[in-house]
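Follow-up to my earlier ticket, as requested here are the two runs.
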Amino acid sequence: MNKHGGYQGNKEQVIDFSVNISPFGPPQSVKQGIMESIETIEKYPSIDGGDYRYLLQEAFSLDKLDPRQLIIGNGAMELIYLFARSLKPERVLLIQPTFNEYQRAFELVGTKVEYFILEENSGFTIPEDRLIKKIQNLKPEVLLLCSPNNPTGVRYDKKLLKGIARELSDWGGILFVDESFGEFVLDKDPYGTTGINNIFILRSLTKFYGIPGLRLGYGIGHSSLIEKLLEHKEPWTVNTFALKALEKIAAEKEYPRQLADWLREEKTYLEKHFQALENPGLKIYPSYVNFYLGKIQGIPAKLVQEKLLEAGIYLRTCEDFQGLDHEHFRFAVRTGKDNEKLIQGFRKILKELSDHK
């Protein structure tokens, strides 16, 4: 299995910055809905969730889409593996560094996975001309990228995505865009990529709504692609409680506003205080979402992780991401007091390093 965030040690009272989910847990309406639906576990849930797709249309402004363009999954993860298993492409191009489950999903079905590795010096942005040339030479059946990207926090321009899709369409290729962190983006782009025939969009409700133990996600694609996915999808993968959660999420109005207000405030706080640390070796990359990629030049991330753990703080090291190295780490945005402790922890580490010079 691949490495993921989440503290697994024995130390008590650890503030876990390694997981990129809402620190507030699910909305109260979701908790209450699950409790109220306890008796329904005596019945089978919807076999493929198809009759709940109208809730996605209501909740996420997808009313212009045909329900046949939507698929509900047991978290975004199920849909990644389902997509790979259903299409079994010969060649896939991954934009790296990115989430490591994409590669595993495609390699399990015998796909040859190629990389297009972004440069740290350019802030992990995509050089369009160079990527298009790579696409033309390789002619992948699928190009997969995450936007906003995990772990870099970079969001790719919709115009760029449409250009990539247009290039792939010459031989029937598909652009797979994982937007699992899209709900955390504060300045939403109103001109999306939904409705383009050869783009498949993946979204997660797990992270924004704080339900990683429940699992809930969905995909958007051309009806013929969705039909193919459904042909390979196991029955009853989305359980009764997850479907009830979707029902409550569709009606939830206050929680998204509150979460956006919290995120805006805490990102401003973190960015201001990291800038104030004024250490030339510390680099925290700009991020559109609820986590940041960082490094301290010349210092292994494992050492940073160990030092912070002494203060009861845990972050994720990123040496397992293609295109990153042993110095990179990632941390999520949490509540005010937690974020203050994180800043204090980094300040102490940087002071110790300065004292030893």
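Run two:
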Amino acid sequence: MQAWPYPAWIAHRGAGTLAPENTLAAFRLGASHGYRMFECDVKLSSDGVPFLLHDDTLARTTSGHGLPTAAVAGKHTWQRLSQLDAGGWHSAAYAGEPLPTMEGIARFCIANGYFLNLEIKSTIGTERHTGEVVAQHAARLWRAQAVPPLLTSFEIPALEGALAAQPALPRGLLIHALKDLSWAQWLAHATRLRCRAIVCNHELWNAETVAHAKAAGFRLLSYTVNEEQEAQRLIALGTDGVITDRVDQFHPHN
């Protein structure tokens, strides 16, 4: 199995729920708690700029709820999106915090020696294209770095696009539930996509699934782990990393 360069503790969306998710403020807060790796969500504006946002729409985490086209984020240009408040929904202390670009987050992480997990979150109908563009930008931004970001997605076409565009970048398949495919079928997809990691809903990991994934050569990550007992269970199973909201509870040096 190839060497795995990433830390075992990963801050979800920057700092979990302690700061407005997927903002530079959240990354800074997560870093203040000792985290050296961050997970975030990346999608494309209508003019092709990769930026951080989890939801399809702008309503929950920005001031863009009144925009046309049902406030679907990917329907708007970056110029328009860059004017939104992505912090005020969380608390007054973060009012005015902007949506960050992927490039801005990359520069922050590279300057500070942090690691990154970029989850590709596509606007419906743009999955493969989004994977291609995110991978191309990642390869450009991290071209001088020893450790590139880990590209992950629930969307198989997005990972296919990332593989086609930049096959050397590490990829991970996200799995939420087994209702659509068997465990063997998921592993087959990850193998075909030349993934380095399987990133699971933490409840899916048990002795059997861990053994099968390790036998297939994958690294094993879990989301979103917020309970001490569950974190210890996953560590005991021999998984390689946990993604958590509780940057104030779990100390990454442990």
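The only thing I checked on run two: The first strand starts at residue 9 and ends at 12. Let me know what else you need.
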